[in-house]
Amino acid sequence: MICQRCQNEASVHLTERVGGKRQELHLCAGCARKAGLVLPESAPDLGLESVVQSLIVQNVGELVGELAELACPDCGTRYMDYRTDGRLGCPQDYRVFSKGLLPSLQRFHGATRHVGKTARLRPAAVHRLRLRSQLREAVAREDYEAAARLRDQIRLKDTHA
Amino acid sequence: MTLDDLTRTSGEWLRGAGPESDIVMCSRIRLARNLADFPFTNRASRSEKAEIEAHFKSALEGAKIEAGYFDVNGMSNLDRQFLVERQLISRELSSGEGPRGVAVTPKENIAIMVNEEDHLRIQYMLSGFRLPQVWDEITALDDQLEDDIAYAYSSSLGYLTACPTNVGTGIRVGVMVHLPGLVANKQIDKVFRALQKINLAVRGFYGEGSQAFGDFYQISNQQTLGKSEEELIKILTDVVPQVLQYERSARQELVTGRRQHLHDQVSRAYGVLKTAQTISSEETMLLLSSVRMGINLGLIDDLSIATVNELFIQTQPAFLQKLRGSELGVEERNVARASYLRSRLGNGRPVEEG
Predict the structure, then answer these.
(1) Residue B185 to residues B95, B178, B196, B258: CA-CA distances in angstroms?
(2) Distances (CA, A) of B303 to A112, B274, B308, B311
(3) What single DSSP character describes residue B154?
(4) Sorting pLDDT into bands at 50, 70 and 90, what band is A2?
(5) Model confidence, pTM
(6) Among A24, A36, A82, B33, who pairs with B120 as Cys (CB 3.0-4.6 Å)?
(7) Which of A83, A90, A137, A154 to mutate to probe the B interface, most B CBs <10 Å?
(8) Which CATH superfamily is domain B3-246 in?
(9) What value of ipTM does the predicted structure carry?
(10) Among chain A residues, CA nearest to B39
(11) Residue A88 sits in which domain range?
């Protein structure tokens, strides 16, 4: 069997079920190493963490290259952080990591779509929260002028709420 | 409301009232909710956690819910343990970091944890088997809080939670059941395996990872996505009666087959609890479990289920120490526990405090 990426002889073979569909991955040793599926030959760190990481990487199968690179622009959580501790960093992660999350949701819940109670859409409250988020960013980048302006806007909204 | 006030009262969920309360100690629903536009608790900075806490407090005021707020950050280990024992906070909140706390109503039927795994963990508990009523109450409370809080929500995935195992409805529907009959006839594992097959989780008294305690177990849903809250509640309301039926026939077998033996076991348990001078927590749980079953089978007639339910909580280490007002070592606690049991069960000399 030949490598799906470079046409060399494949020596690493992975199968995984994603959403009930069987997926196969055949790679040569070089491409598998590049994709992080096997530890580099001169791996300096053979601690538990790296072994766990490599197992997780194998588990994700074909999506590995793409998912391993993903990080949430809002909270900085990497997809691999989530695979390690099982916790997401912020609501945006559901969107950013959806490719990796949906198969897990299907496996755990047997479904990928919510059918229960709906939250009320409350644009004013969301807007106030967004202003607060912008304020945090302004403070972080030490833009105190913008921060003061945002603080006033929030106060105004709070008074009129 | 202070923590000391709680040592003089007990939660509604211990009243031993409501349908099937001989076996179902309480019905509980919790909702996991997060504020939109904030990182989840594990990624939130100290100041963000403080902001989340402040938002919640103002929403709580707006909702006009009469509740005391206990600031868990900065609380002593003993006080945190006391709240864990009363089922008002989780061990995760107790051992967490930074601004966090819990709002509790005087009847202790509502407890809202702030900055646990999710920003809000809203819990509603009532004694007996009353899940639909608990749902009506908690969804109304959720709506009230939503007047002031914008929840993290997606139209396709529902309420967004820190762990994807809670996403969607964010609901955990559970009952705490007392199953000494199934423990005695060794059928308990069989029942649990059957429940797990239909995606229900069985946990110990203090939730995930905790041990069974006086033959009490929590049965709850695991799935939170793809089914409505009402459907998830219906699964429990359909399945739990079957467990109750197994427990009742196990008890009946004990009564008919080994009546004298059972009566002896229950009477001895009651006797030890009324007269012991020193007693461990484990032995207390075991004996209280026998006594509780004895009351239900009519073998003890001068003690209420409510008192026994309360004693399960009030003989725990932190409660005894709060009552004494000082930290106690294991041996001192065993003596204090025996003394408290004697005073509550109306036998022996009145308890000498201090």
Answers:
(1) 37, 14, 20, 12
(2) 50, 12, 8, 12
(3) E
(4) confident
(5) 0.81
(6) B33
(7) A90
(8) Glutamine synthetase/guanido kinase, catalytic domain (3.30.590.10)
(9) 0.88
(10) A90
(11) 70-112
